[in-house]
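# step 3/5: fold
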Amino acid sequence: MIGSKAQIGIISGVLIVCGLGLTLYKSLSLGLPLMPEQYQDVWTIESRIHFRPDEGPVEVELDLPRGYNGWYTLNENFSSSGFGFTVVENDDGSRKAQWTRSRLAEEATLYYKIEAYKAADNNLPKIPVPELDVDPVSPVLEKSAAGYITSLRERSNDDETFTRLLLQDFYADTVSQQAQFIMSETHESRLDTVLRVLRMAGIPAHRIRGIELEDGRRRQTLGAMLEVHIGKRWVVFNPVDGATGLPNDFYVWSRGDEAILSVVGGRNSTLQFALVENSIPLRTVVSMEQRSDQFALLDFSIYALPVEQQGIFKGLLLIPVAALVVVFMRVVVGVKTSGTFMPILIALALIQTTLLVGLAIFILLVSFGLWIRSYLSHMNLLLVARVAAVVIVVILMMAMFAIASYKLGVDEALTVTFFPTIILAWTIERMSILWEEEGVHEVMVQGGGSLLVAVLAYMVMSINVVEHLTFNFPELLFALLGVILLLGKYTGYRLSELYRFREMKTRS
């Protein structure tokens, strides 16, 4: 009969061969890059339309992006289960996705997904200057706006500086009294009021709506920029800070003030976006549409999931890498940690908070929690009540820490919410018991070991190549599993034990 060590060896070998074999197949046959330096950044943008139906027929229309500013659409997909679907193309080149249904009884969700990449930093194409169409306003608002426009004209030398001053007044931390009065009279949003004032001043302007590209972002809504006609050209302004030009991470969805989403026969409609950045070889990007039948294997990979789930798995697929680091450090090196996989959770939090800020937050939370726990121990509470009390205290500490950091302008510390609250509470409880039973030295050893392993796991997971391989080649997890199984049968000396017994070796 085959022993357990031989069985583990065979299983590990099969897993490693399968993982590496599938990875090589995808690299050689499908052209997926093994190294991130060989790829074109491709963004998968998934729009999600959700609404509640009314009685009667339903019609949903969504304006489709036109590939402004050097963006090229590689592929697009529509989800229209149970709906009639068509793409309407207009004479001006614009397109609309249209979903229709005669009757709908339950809430519905529709999806539109594109894969796009930026080929060049082209300027926005020229469009005709529209005729100024200013809606009639009350005499009070008209008089107040006229005086405000006159004062801005006196402080500016052209339409561009006029627009900057206008944005400063409306988007400053303390909005000017004139701007506040005009907004209160129009009962419109800040940007709508700015557009109204510009048109009343004889300056054509409209919105540019788009998406701020951030990898793994979910439930994102459309942002807005301001496009103003100055002289003979259109100039894009960031309304918040007055900066000109389109940011590199802003994907333009539409230009103009027309509605992007229209839902007839429904209510409470929302339009949200999920984003994932991926790496694809340039030759694959160019030829993917022509060879789509050769990529059938990708339909059964992470790419086949909705973009929101892809973003989640992009982080989850790094956990086995951290697990390998923990196993190696505990089994081979012999580092003691507080809990078996607590360092993994700390490392995941460090990825969101950055290393130094995350370590400072963790040490402060645990130190204060240990002090609270020592006080609770004198009250002779039951274990469940004691841990629940620590959980509440940890949450209160996180809230107070976030508020204080926000008031002090330390935005990085706001990521304290990424730390796992329940695990922090149990860590505080374990360390408190360890303190009482083994003393402060053992607490420092295990706490320091946990932070050391967490930092190492964070450093490995932060490597661009590791993140690229785990997401594009999840088959490598088979190989990781095989390596971990092999480490599980390791019975030799740990490196820490070799250092511990170094004097015995010297004497012998």
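# step 4/5: annotate
The first strand starts at residue 39 and ends at 53.
# step 5/5: archive (pending)
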